[in-house]
């Protein structure tokens, strides 16, 4: 285990350095959510009724959209390693298979932490007024971290099976789309019945409702337990799937 931990730290350091050098991805992981937030707050916000200030309503959804973009970048980074010969070099070394993916997942979490902090600061400048306590902020941050890790491990698995960086980008597209099919931007009860039912019973909606409730004081109900169950379940399933797909790919 000590060797695995040391190998993981080495790969984490490598992936973070690569992220720092890949300025295009780093900048877009911040710029895209900021553009989306400005679009919804200033263009659509005046026409959408949520029972509260729209900027307070939409910020949790933008944060999860930001996480989806960061995870999609993880899939492309893993695919680049798989197709550039980097993994072939690592196969000759006595390291555990999952540590290669661990580095990419840790870099994804770091990128998301940075972009989330910038997005929240920009939201405050746009009028976002959270009233959560320090404990509630920590709980929201912990839930978001679980979600980001789950999504990043899933993206790492998709990157491991992709045959090119372009196909990895296509495979991970649904991570950017899924928040739109939730309560991120409009209440689910304003949607058609069938679409509203899907939105209410997919994993992102309870996560958004829990984060929104923790930060702005709206009712959480049973969404907290559902959000935690979804996040932990997705994290475990994504980790197992990603490591299995990686092992299968490197054996081919």
Describe this structure in words.
The structure is a single chain. This protein is mostly helical. The protein contains 11 helices and no strands. It has helices at 2-21, 23-44, 54-84, 86-90, 98-126, 134-161, 165-171, 174-177, 193-200, 204-216, 223-251. α2 packs antiparallel against α3, α6 (134-161) runs antiparallel to α10 and α10 (204-216) crosses α11 (223-251). The radius of gyration is 19 Å and the shape is elongated. The model has no long low-confidence stretch (mean pLDDT 82).
Q: Could you give a quick summary of the protein structure above?
A:
The protein has eleven helices and no strands.
What is the element layout, followed by pairings?
Layout: H1 2-21, H2 23-44, H3 54-84, H4 86-90, H5 98-126, H6 134-161, H7 165-171, H8 174-177, H9 193-200, H10 204-216, H11 223-251
Helix pairs in contact: 1-5, 2-3, 2-5, 3-5, 3-6, 3-7, 3-10, 5-6, 6-7, 6-10, 6-11, 10-11
InterPro entries: ABC2_TM, ABC2_TM_bact-type, ABC_2_transport, Nod_factor_ABC_transporter
Family: Belongs to the ABC-2 integral membrane protein family.
Pfam families: ABC2_membrane (PF01061)
């Amino acid at each position: 285990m000590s060797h695995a931990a040391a190998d993981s730290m080495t790969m984490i350091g490598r992936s973070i350095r690569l992220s720092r050098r890949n300025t295009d991805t780093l900048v877009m992981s911040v710029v895209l959510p900021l553009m989306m937030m400005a679009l919804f707050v200033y263009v659509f916000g005046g026409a959408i009724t949520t029972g509260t200030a729209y900027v307070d309503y939409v910020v949790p959804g933008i944060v999860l959209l930001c996480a989806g973009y960061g995870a999609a970048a993880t899939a492309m980074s893993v695919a680049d390693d798989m197709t550039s010969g980097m993994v072939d070099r690592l196969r000759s070394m006595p390291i555990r298979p999952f540590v290669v993916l661990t580095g990419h997942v840790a870099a994804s979490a770091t990128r998301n932490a940075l972009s989330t902090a910038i997005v929240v600061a920009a939201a405050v400048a746009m009028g976002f007024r959270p009233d959560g306590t320090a404990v509630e902020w920590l709980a929201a941050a912990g839930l978001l971290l679980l979600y980001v890790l789950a999504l990043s491990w899933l993206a790492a698995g998709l990157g491991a099976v992709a045959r090119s960086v372009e196909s990895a980008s296509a495979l991970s597209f649904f991570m950017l789309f899924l928040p739109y099919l939730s309560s991120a931007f409009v209440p689910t009860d304003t949607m058609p019945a069938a679409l509203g039912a899907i939105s209410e019973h997919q994993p992102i909606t309870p996560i958004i409702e829990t984060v929104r409730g923790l930060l702005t004081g709206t009712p959480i109900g049973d969404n907290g337990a559902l959000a935690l169950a979804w996040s932990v379940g997705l994290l475990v399933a994504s980790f197992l799937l990603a490591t299995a797909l990686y092992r299968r790919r490197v054996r081919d």
